[in-house]
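Course assignment 3, question 2. Fill in each field.
Student: A.L.
Task: Predict the tertiary structure for the chain below.
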Amino acid sequence: MRLITYRAAGASEDRLGLLDSKGEWVAPQEVLNLPYSDMNELIASMTEEERQQLSQRAEDESLFIVPADEIVLRAPIPYPKQDVICLGVNYLEHAREAARFEKDSFDIQSSYPVYFSKRVNEAAGHRQGIPAYEDIVDSLDYEAELAVIIGKDARNVREEDALDYIFGYTILNDMSARNLQTRHTQWYFGKSLDGFTPMGPAIVTKDEIMYPPKLKIQTLVNGELRQSSSTDLLIFDIGYVIHELSQGMTLKAGTIISTGTPKGVGMGFTPPRFLHKGDVIECKIEKLGTLVNQID
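Answer field:
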């Protein structure tokens, strides 16, 4: 099933719901009788029995009574409990293009992942504008990524048990200001500006996706294909990442882990092809949908 956070047209209150597989109709919270205040509470509180019941109800087409073009899709988790955990250079070819641009000596044969965090005051939703920040950013870039949502508190998880701790998956565009990354010789500030975490359009629950995910991932800018790869090319896979991070650090229910981007980001071209006002970015992941945003 596809869980969403949305607002009715003209409303200011977030609601929960289900999106149909074509992205055309919504089953609203009041019809589904969801007793949760937001997606964080749903993830942390929903029992397996309740999840199965909701999944069965998601097959009832009569519940999908609201046209999707009459609501505003928010990020599935508009206000994450904590910073997003991100993986850097987790596709081999992206590691190579990043090294060329940043003139860093990335160890593409490293035995360990590169982890960093991304501050998210409020995640951007599908079709929400992304600020250009032209006064401080001269090299705005995109990064389509598969994001994993943790479903229950995870600590000391064995790699083979990782799936038990996954709630679902969504698309995350790890927007990046390359000049700020270079200036500060680290990635936190350049990836944490307000609006730099577009996410969605929905959380697709883990039962819909074969594990480990082997999904086509693509990015188009103004209709031009820029990124095209598959999530089965991750250097460090989801099971390994959950296992390693949970050794000594509790991954709370609702934690978002963004697994890295493939080659084809703007900085990887010669010359670089960065984003500008008016550009439209489409991040696509097979079975998860398409996340569309425009630079404002």
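Instructor remarks: The mean pLDDT is 95. Residues 2-73 form one domain.
Grade: pending
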